[in-house]
Design a protein that fits this description.
It contains 6 helices and 10 strands. The protein is of the alpha+beta class. α4 runs parallel beside α5 (152-160).
Length: 184
């Protein structure tokens, strides 16, 4: 009887230990995404700024860092970083190409973003500009992002001209994420 009790106690200890490790991994993942505890706190507790501005750097094809803020470009969806597309029978990393396209678009320029809300990950959802250029629209017009609640005209034009991913066989980013269990 005592042996069975020890076995159950050991099993509960292992389960608790595993749960603690998973919780730690989740916290570390959140912290590594955005600049430490300050950024984690900022995501959900700070007031929503109506507008942000500053030099930016791309995270992927539809999100960027502007100062201490992680911004998701509203109304568009770009291929994920590890997503591939097929052009003329050859696989290419369209997710990385989308990130590079956004990098070129914002490189060395001041980005101004009109913030509308936060997404479920705490990122600011915004329409961003560099000067007079709408960054969100430019990503869709270049064919490196698809319309996701906006920018339908730009998508139709990019598709008709076979720009970017529209010159390839590809999965819609949302479908790709669902199949690969990736967050948005």
């Amino acid at each position: 009887m005592r042996q069975r009790f020890r076995f159950r106690r050991r099993r509960r200890f292992k389960a608790a230990h595993l749960a603690a490790l998973v919780a730690l991994a989740v916290v570390m993942g959140l912290l590594s995404r955005g600049g430490g505890l300050q950024a984690l706190r900022q995501r959900w507790t700070d007031p929503l700024p109506p507008k942000i501005s500053g030099l930016a750097r791309s995270i992927d094809g539809d999100s960027l860092w502007a100062g201490a803020y992680e911004v998701r470009l509203k109304g568009i969806d770009a291929p994920e970083g590890s997503q591939t597309c097929v052009r003329k029978g050859v696989s290419w990393n369209c997710g990385e190409a989308a990130r590079e396209a956004l990098s070129r678009l914002i490189a060395g320029k001041t980005v101004t973003c009109d913030v509308s809300e936060r997404d479920v990950y705490g990122r600011l959802l915004a329409n961003c500009r560099t000067g007079d250029r709408d960054v969100n629209a430019a990503m869709v017009a270049s064919g490196m992002a698809v319309a996701y609640g906006g920018y339908w005209k730009e998508e139709r034009e990019a598709k008709a001209a076979h720009r970017g991913i529209w010159d390839s066989e590809f999965q819609m980013p949302r479908q790709w994420r669902d199949e690969h269990k990736q967050p948005r």
